[in-house]
């Protein structure tokens, strides 16, 4: 191992069995992935880690807990749209583990705007493991170190190569579980007769239930860049909402989009529901759930279904259900034997988790019979 921070004995915070335990726990509990990749970074003298997932031209990811604020800021800046590390790494299939110095000249590392940007976030050197996944997807586990310190050495490459089969098994398992979870979500909406689809963070459609499928080609356009709406004004709102899926930008988005009646359908409301449940949706490639409310439908979602779909507590789900059925805050408080402030507190959480901003939007999402909210 290199001297200084690169010295393995001096910096290992976990032994390899701890790392393996973390990876296999994360395989079935994806919310544990950020801590699992942090352990990997500690083993090679890094200060944190990032895991990227790429599928169908879209790249997204998550970071270890200590880098989360900086990573979220980096994503919100749009910097992830062009990542030369990933581009060059994928051009070297002969190297399953790569370092910056394997892909770039020292002059490039010093002068390219990309490296100047990452150094401004407190990192600079990386060593990364590439792993293909099913359905032409792949993941990259990138362990990070400040640019002011020594670059990763050969020992870090050897250690990551040793971890490759374990990272692969864990990532494949998480991907399959996440895709099954997305399919189950769409099946739930299918059973309720509600059109729904899942889209990637960039807006490309991942999957849709049959109810949503009947709108493809007329109301919705499955474009190569992103899913669109045939109605120009509504499409502009949808494009803006999809562009603001990152949590730091979503508060300014219109999450419920009215669509005028057309041939073969009445007025519709398209609800964009952000999916932000740790690593779950990163492995599935999901950025949002689109739910279509058709005017004239009368079914309100069951409280248990609401709880599952939006990751609510039982109390939050009951409040959401009662509001959708037309109850006022005071009536809900009296029925549940709690204060009005408690109900309002639950509603704030429901708004955040469901991606809406107003009571009218929540009612429209949970009960398709209401009129579309004004944009």
UniProtKB/TrEMBL annotation:
Domain HTH luxR-type, chain residue ranges per copy: 305-370
State the Pfam families in the record.
GerE
Keywords on record = DNA-binding, Transcription, Transcription regulation
The record's GO molecular-function terms, alphabetically, read: DNA binding
Q: Name one GO biological process term.
A: regulation of DNA-templated transcription
Glycoprotein as UniProt keyword: no
Q: What is this protein called?
A: Helix-turn-helix transcriptional regulator
Q: Which organism is it from?
A: Xanthobacter tagetidis
Q: What is the lineage of its organism?
A: Bacteria, Pseudomonadati, Pseudomonadota, Alphaproteobacteria, Hyphomicrobiales
